[in-house]
Amino acid sequence: MKSLSIRLKITLWFSAVLVVVVFFTYLAVLSVSRQIIQKTIKDSLIETVENNVDEVEFYHSLDDIDSSNDVDHYVKYIDGYLEIDDDFLNHVNEVYTALYKEDVTLLYGENPISKETSNLKFSDSQIQQLTVKGTIYYIFDRKLSTLGLESLWLRGVVSEAQGAMQMSNITRLSLIILPLLVLVAVTGGYLIAGSALRPIRKITDTAAQIGKGDDLKKRIELGRGNDELHQLANSFNDMFQRLDDSFETERQFTSDASHELRTPISVITAQCDFSLEEPRDAEAYEKALRVIQRQSKKMSKLVNDMLNFTRLETRADSYVREPIDLTELVSSTCSDMAYIQENNITLKCEAEANVKFHGNRELLSRLLVNLISNAYRYGNENGHILVRLKSNEQEIALSVSDDGIGIAKEEQNKIFRRFYQTDNSRTSAGTGLGLSMVYEIAQFHKGEIRVESELHRGSTFTLILPN
Ligand code: ADP
């Protein structure tokens, strides 16, 4: 059963239920039909006998009888005659009626079980039942009450076999029609199940093709619709899109990283070639070594940033969240970085007391270091940096402002992209990964990073954290 297709399983279950339902319907039809037929037979028996009641009359002399109607029957009875109208139904629709004396002597009519009923007492307007040679008969007696006929009885007899014939017709018909209906329903069910499950085949095929790595751009096309399978296909398509996006980002990252590494490697190789080509003076060697040192530092920073990035993206749970005294973190980072004094820039810190946050200390410290490093790197000679920490009931705001070169409006939404550097910073020691790391760290803490900047006037980067 487990190895059967869903289509076959659905059809089998559905057919089994259908067969059970049809079987019980068949039994119910038989039982109801039997009752209806029996009632019909009995009704027809009573009706025939009652119709015959008025067809018998008594006359003292034959002279009193209207002899114009010569089809009527006359039977001698006591001191007169019985006139039995020609409308008297002695055998109609398998119902027999006979006229009897009180002592069960047959006067007129037919009774197929006359011998067997000769000892059966009359019972007025009652249906009695008698089994003769395995066949059930219904007997209906009716006492006549018209003057002169008081001791006469009409006895009607009908066999149940009459109904059995009709029953066997119903049985035969049901035995042909019901299996036919089952067959039609099962075939229809099998076809409907097939077309209802067709989308699953499409989903499986597409997933298999994507799984084989054929084409990540492939999507499941089911056309219009909003049933469960369409919803499933949409979920799969969303998943494929996310997979595609993340592979694309991965590819882009790898290609950008190799591109970024290529420049320092070429510079180092060129410097080595230059130094080894022929003997140079000490000053030339020193110059070459300084270039190599600078490029090596850049490479090392790049590799470090990339590793940190990968860790944040692939093993974010390795960064534990803990209660942090942000005031202390900001103050200590600022006093450490105030020593840099690059370009004679001064760093000032205004941290509100006692600001606590539940987050990762290492990441938040890296974020602040990145923002302050940028403020130094893109600051002007004798410039200023202001680090501010403020908090209210809803949020904590940590901002780093500088009065440096600023960022053009059209660049402001691009600077958080990986490896993005504006034209006037290409020559700096940066890697283009700092702000994208800041962005990821803000996301990690369910916060956001905002930038306000004006070209040649300075920039303010603000981290907003939920309080
Ligand atoms: P980089 O390593 O080049 O600094 P970042 O990701 O940290 O890379 O920054 C991306 C770009 O954003 C920088 O190249 C620079 O052009 C711009 N930028 C970042 N911080 C500042 C700032 N404080 N002032 C002006 N420009 C900035």
Give the helix proportion (percent range).
40-55%
Ions, cofactors, ligands: which are bound? adenosine-5'-diphosphate
Strand content: 15-25%
**Poorly predicted sequence stretches spanning 5 or more consecutive residues:** none
Most strands sheet: 6 strands, antiparallel
Overall pLDDT level: 89
Q: Tell how many strands the DSSP assignment holds.
A: 16
Order of helices and strands: HEEEEEEEEEHHHEHEEHEEHEE
Number of helices: 7
Radius of gyration: 54 Å
Q: What gross morphology would you assign?
A: rod-shaped
Distance from first to last alpha carbon: 57 Å
Q: What structural class do the secondary elements suggest? A: alpha+beta
What oligomerization state is this entry in? Answer: single chain
What do these coordinates show?
This protein is of the alpha+beta class. It contains seven helices and 16 strands. The strands form four sheets. Strands 4, 5, 6, 7, 8 and 9 form a six-stranded antiparallel sheet that branches. Strands 11-13-14-16-15 form a five-stranded mixed sheet, covered by helices on one side. The protein is rod-shaped, with a radius of gyration of 54 Å. The chain binds adenosine-5'-diphosphate (ADP). Adenosine-5'-diphosphate binds next to helix 6 and helix 7.
